[in-house]
């Protein structure tokens, strides 16, 4: 009691006025720094508007949008701008440094220098040595120089990204089957395989799976997986060190070459030419090639026509965005990895329905939710999902209106739109109306009374009855469940 009574109060009184003053100064400095960050962000937003107009949406989106504001040093007048990769930082620095520096000087006179570099928190890429090992490197070196990159390339394959962990659906089954053919022991009918998909839809997963499966089918095969950025970095390094002969001989010694994010091969014509010659050499020897990008070969900017021709000469397999059925399957498959997977069905349905932009965000949302629940000891619930996944959900949520739901339901059941608010009690009218009420509750944030008003001023109890009835029918009537699933796909697409 003594420690928490008068002695504690006396200790509190002993806090010096100087310490209070310092704390006040620190708080004021923090406020000033926060204000400066906000002002810089506002200036950057204005600069971006002008750059988007000058460069066009495509160039701006690919190179300027990823730029992040860094620190600003008032003493030197230097502002740091960060990009996620070494290649993109060099590319922007080479082409836009003067333009960015001028724009900042106009927007804010105290900015005298702009420094463009890689974000300090980025993941470091593994080194791939194309020349002799450094003198202080005591790692045993393979006797065959081509095996040096082969071992590192195989090590670069993620062990979790296999065909066994890839969940298939209507939108990705073609790419999945083509990838399996590419990895089989029999010679594929096509090469190269070009996987085209938006971010987070599984193209990188399939590239890794091809490498793993081919290594199992043909033990001892030399496999090289890299990003296009990595290829460019290693090419430039070999060029500067006068090791192009070694680089070429090692690169062409592989049995399988897998290059991810091929859209970043734009730029240096010499690197494109080397990749072109490598493709020709490997194809001539019956080797296998796989590429992945976020756009079709013909849509790649700044790529030589001859290289475009090689990239598209095999099979171009498109991976469509995962529909809600596939998103459910992915979540259910992911749950098998957790020792404790007590996730209610309504949470799975909510995540599958709401996080629709890409599979990576979907799985990341589930992982975050389960991790938070385990660390805090809370049960997984809808409320917890909505509370902890705010950023992901807001980025994915497309606002669907009750008017849109009514219009879609009427088209589906071939009804006149006026029937949604009519007093008719015929079954052919009542059931679609109830389905629309159910969808309005599931897909919009509207309350029962608000929904009722949109359906001819009906009472909230009528809406509650409709929602419960459709939920019950979905559980025991396959036709009704199929109708609702079809309508959900239409409305969420």
TrEMBL record:
Query: Biological process (GO) annotations?
Result: DNA replication initiation; regulation of DNA replication
Protein localization:
Cytoplasm
GO cellular component assignments: cytoplasm; plasma membrane
**Pfam families, per database record:** Bac_DnaA, Bac_DnaA_C, DnaA_N
| Stretches the record annotates as Domain IV, binds dsDNA | 374-493
The AAA+ ATPase domain is annotated at: 189-366
Name the UniProt key words of this record, in alphabetical order: ATP-binding, Cytoplasm, DNA replication, DNA-binding, Lipid-binding, Nucleotide-binding
Q: Chromosomal replication initiator DnaA C-terminal domain location, by residue?
A: 401-470
> What InterPro entries does UniProt report for this protein, alphabetically?
AAA+_ATPase (IPR003593), Chromosome_initiator_DnaA (IPR001957), Chromosome_initiator_DnaA-like (IPR020591), Chromosome_initiator_DnaA_CS (IPR018312), DnaA_C (IPR013159), DnaA_dom (IPR013317), DnaA_N_dom (IPR024633), DnaA_N_sf (IPR038454)
Q: Name one GO molecular function term.
A: ATP binding
Task: Name the segments for region: Domain I, interacts with DnaA modulators.
Answer: 1-134
What highest taxon heads this organism's lineage? Bacteria
Has the keyword Amino-acid biosynthesis been applied to this entry?
no
Show the HAMAP family listed in the entry: DnaA_bact
Family according to the record: Belongs to the DnaA family.
Q: What is known of its domains?
A: Domain I is involved in oligomerization and binding regulators, domain II is flexibile and of varying length in different bacteria, domain III forms the AAA+ region, while domain IV binds dsDNA.
Indicate what this protein is called per its UniProt record.
Chromosomal replication initiator protein DnaA
The encoding gene is dnaA
């Amino acid at each position: 009691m003594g420690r928490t009574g008068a002695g504690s109060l006396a200790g509190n009184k002993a806090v010096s006025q100087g310490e209070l003053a310092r704390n006040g100064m620190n708080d004021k400095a923090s406020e000033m720094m926060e204000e400066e960050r906000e002002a810089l962000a506002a200036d950057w937003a204005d600069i971006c508007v002008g750059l988007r107009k000058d460069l066009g949406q495509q160039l701006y989106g690919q190179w300027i949008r990823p730029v992040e504001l860094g620190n600003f040093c008032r003493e030197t007048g230097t502002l740091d701008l960060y990009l996620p990769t070494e290649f993109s930082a060099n590319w922007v620095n080479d082409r836009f440094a003067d333009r960015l520096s001028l724009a900042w000087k106009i927007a804010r006179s105290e900015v005298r220098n702009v420094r463009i570099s890689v974000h300090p928190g980025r993941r470091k890429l593994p080194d791939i040595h194309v020349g002799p090992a450094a003198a202080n490197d005591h790692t045993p070196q393979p006797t065959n120089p081509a095996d040096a990159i082969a071992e590192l390339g195989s090590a670069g394959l993620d062990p979790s990204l296999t065909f066994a962990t890839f969940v298939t659906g209507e939108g990705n089954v073609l790419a999945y089957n083509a990838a399996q053919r590419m990895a089989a022991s029999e010679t594929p009918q096509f090469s190269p395989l070009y996987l085209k998909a938006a971010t987070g839809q599984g193209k990188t997963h399939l590239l890794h799976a091809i490498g793993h499966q081919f290594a199992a089918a043909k033990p001892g095969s030399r496999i090289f997986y890299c990003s296009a950025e990595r290829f460019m970095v290693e090419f430039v390094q070999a060029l500067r060190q006068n090791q192009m002969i070694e680089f070429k001989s090692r690169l062409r010694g592989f049995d399988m070459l897998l290059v991810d994010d091929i859209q970043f091969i734009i730029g240096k014509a010499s690197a494109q030419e080397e990749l072109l010659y490598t493709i020709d050499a490997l194809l001539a020897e019956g080797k296998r090639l796989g590429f992945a990008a976020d756009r079709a070969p013909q849509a790649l900017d700044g790529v030589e026509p001859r290289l475009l021709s090689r990239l598209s000469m095999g099979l171009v397999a498109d991976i469509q965005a995962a529909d809600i059925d596939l998103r459910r399957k992915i979540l259910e498959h992911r749950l098998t990895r957790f020792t404790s997977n007590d996730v209610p069905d309504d949470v799975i349905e909510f995540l599958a329905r709401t996080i629709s932009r890409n599979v990576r965000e979907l799985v990341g949302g589930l992982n975050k939710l389960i991790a938070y629940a385990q660390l805090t000891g809370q049960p997984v619930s809808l409320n917890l999902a909505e509370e902890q996944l705010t950023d992901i959900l807001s980025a994915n949520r497309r606002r669907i209106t009750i008017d849109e739901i009514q219009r879609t339901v009427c088209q589906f059941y071939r009804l006149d739109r006026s029937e949604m608010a009519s007093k008719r009690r015929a079954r052919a009218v009542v059931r679609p109306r109830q389905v629309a009420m159910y969808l309005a509750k599931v897909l919009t944030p509207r309350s029962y009374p608000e929904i009722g008003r949109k359906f001819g001023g009906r009472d909230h109890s009528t809406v509650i009855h409709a929602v419960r009835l459709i939920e019950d029918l979905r559980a025991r009537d396959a036709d009704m469940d199929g109708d609702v699933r079809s309508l959900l796909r239409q409305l969420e697409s």
